[in-house]
Fold these 3 entries.
Entry 1:
Amino acid sequence: MEPVKVGLLGLGTVGGGTMNVLHRNAAEISRRAGRDIVVSHAAAREFDPKDIDGLDKVSITNDAFEVVRHPEVDVVVELIGGYSPAKELVLEAIAQGKHVVTANKALIALHGNEIFSAAQAKGVTVAFEAAVAGGIPIIKALREGLAANHIEWIAGIINGTGNFILTEMRDKGRNFADVLKEAQELGYAEADPTFDVEGIDAAHKLTILASLAFGIPLQFDKCYTEGIGKIEAQDVEYAEELGYRIKHLGVTRRTDTGVELRVHPTLIPERRLIANVDGVMNAVLVKGDAVGSTLYYGAGAGSLPTASAVAADIIDIARALTVDPDSRVPHLAFQPDELSDFPVLDMDQIETAYYLRLTVEDKPGVLAKVTGILGESGISIEAVKQKEPPSGEPEVPLVLLTHRVLEGDMNRALAAIAAMDAVRSVSRIRVEYLD
Ligand code: HSE
């Protein structure tokens, strides 16, 4: 059978890794795909040829549109990242009747609805396994392995850079900027690393997971996003004393009234497997009604792990080249005309437990007043700890864990607490039990 010809856009961390995986495992990949997969064309402005295998057989240009429009190319693999020109290149590839593989979560989260609709009209596939959780085949799991389930919720550590930073800070006491720099050098961080630390990258990925799980269109603009920048060393310490770990989590849950879609630092009981996922590793916990809880773990970033997902998508496309387009696995797991308009909930409407840390004057009646305000708001307290004041300080940290409560009720209670004369500062981190 004729080989499948691939046009690769980008020869950076993931592009170079994809060349290397396709080259090193060519024989096995061919046995799996039923035909050879050959990178015939590539577009790149800057790359380091000494780290990339098999480039001698590739025609390289700096004009990505030339590759997209080349008549020999069957599959366009977009590994440039960003919104533009990635979007234009992907839409042009579709218009040319070519299948597309992309690792670009920002592109899919923001423009996926338009891209999938164009692909469907042309009868081509846009595959994006590498867009979520690097090398973990979570998209295949949701679209195929769990297709019989009513998915109830998903919780994931889905940004490797953020998890690497939190782990290094906790275990080695390293400072934020140093660890971020190392993550950039290792090729984990986004081109704009604020995407990693402010939770935007995780929100892109969670948006995709929610659509696959619940059959709703991609709605990145409705995802609540909070980064890791405000986590303090004392919160990590107090959380551990209470039996929890702080992780930056993406959570999406189906409720009776809508879908929760949120990314934020979260306390998780330390006995949960996912609480022990460290470094650049990602993990996604999926709760289905039939299967129960399933956990997917692996490298969430990096050259070869991400290339593993990109190459798997190319193989899937090679296997299905002759399949009737309507019989292929739908892009968002549900048939395109079966997507629902079930709403994404505002944060005020979500329900979760809370860890609260207040800095208060150390004098009689303060704790009673704080707990009184929480009680009046219907917020039930699970644990309270008053910490020793730092030496010579007149103020003490007061740490509370609450039961589950509506975020809107908690916001009102915290505003009343923050207005107390004796309260200097209030911070909160959401808590998920994931049981
Ligand atoms: N910057 C991303 C991360 C890369 O750190 O997880 C993989 O999407």
Entry 2:
Amino acid sequence: MDLVIINGPNLNFLGIREPDVYGKETLEDLEQKIKAYAEDRGHTCDFFQSNTEGSLIDRIQQAHSEQADGIILNPAAYTHYSYAIHDAVKSVGIPTVEVHLSNIHAREAFRNKSVVASACIGQISGFGATGYTLAIHALEEQ
Ligand code: DQA
């Protein structure tokens, strides 16, 4: 499978940002882990991170022109209010798994809701970096 892994705002600050919540690994560490797991299983992966909503939507749409087989998406704070990202995921019709490093259901009330999840095949939340490899496994089963 050709996979696109998209991370939203502030995830470029992994390692610096609230390490008690998000761990000490950097985004680069995380991407290396995902890449090694994906390539071992014969998949390709392309990584993208942005702090802006429009760029995330553009990358989701680009996955359509690339005929990607799956998207793994951590929309970060946009999860909780971006109908535009929900619509982008719906528009491309590519199986998408929503991933969160932390358990969004066990945190502040505003994080308990995802407006993106209903456009996705499923959501994985609270398993740190493992969530991304679990998402690859879920896409393999599609
Ligand atoms: C996050 C959870 C979001 O609530 C938060 O805004 C993030 C990261 C996670 O991976 O746990 O930026 O998506």
Entry 3:
Amino acid sequence: MSVLGPALVLAAQGRRVWTPESASTGAPRHDALFYFLLYLSAFFFLLVVGLMVFFAIKYRRRREGQRTSPLAGSRRLEIIWSVIPALFFLLLFVWGWREYMSLAVPPGDAMDIRVTAQKWVWTFDYPKEGISSNELVVPVGRPVRLTMSSQDVIHSFFVPAFRIKRDVLPNRYTVAWFEATETGTYDIQCTEYCGTGHSQMLSRVRVLGEREFKEWVDSGGGLSGKGLSSIEFGKLLFKSKGCATCHSVDGSQRTGPTMLGRFGARTTLVEGKTVVVDDNYVRESIMDPAAKIAQGFQPVMPTYAGRLKDKQVDALIDYIKSLRR
Ligand code: CUA
């Protein structure tokens, strides 16, 4: 194992055919096992099917009344075809078990980040640094432990380039970890169907050098709103809090009504009443989305009560106000 492992890692690195780019310490190890399994299966598939076809042709019945010659067992053959697969199974078990353990147990010195999933946005909180962000920003070459939970339904956190995927559940914590090996930007996807906005539930991991990461932390990280006008802060929140998943700002209708030119306009509700979209209507729609549903839309928006501070709601309203036709 100790010699075989690294050798296969090298072999797999040169043959990235079916796997995405790899940017974590775990990725090449994952790929090595994947390719080993793939090629092993391919080899035995060809061997078994090849022999089957060959025997079917060679020993086919050639004339009426031809009898099969009597068969005697071969102990040697039976031992060979039992022992060789058993050894492969054992190898795969030990190898898979070791990989599983290294995936399941984060190193003790890992940096902590809390991941919160909700329809349909990811939030990353840095408890030590006191930062909240909608992009996962991490330093290169340092192990990172993600403690994840969901505010509503089951989501699944997936970073293809790191080969980590873990379900994110309500009322429970799940843990994943990684150590990025390359600076750059990588995709985060949700891989558990979680409702209308599931396919839009995307984010990024930004891997920075140690110095750039420190600068990012010092600047207050993602969602501080430091140095921004209320409208700019609102725009940032609109994207980062998931509003933009369902509400466009260009006039196109998605799961929810567009915000372009909406403020100040009259809107018809499902029960036929007409209301003016003013500060109070927007605030109520954020805190208690089901209270007044606009005609032509489903009551699918989750509540943001307790998830936004007053200042953030104000900023969102200011931003929506600024979206004139
Ligand atoms: Cu969250 Cu799919």
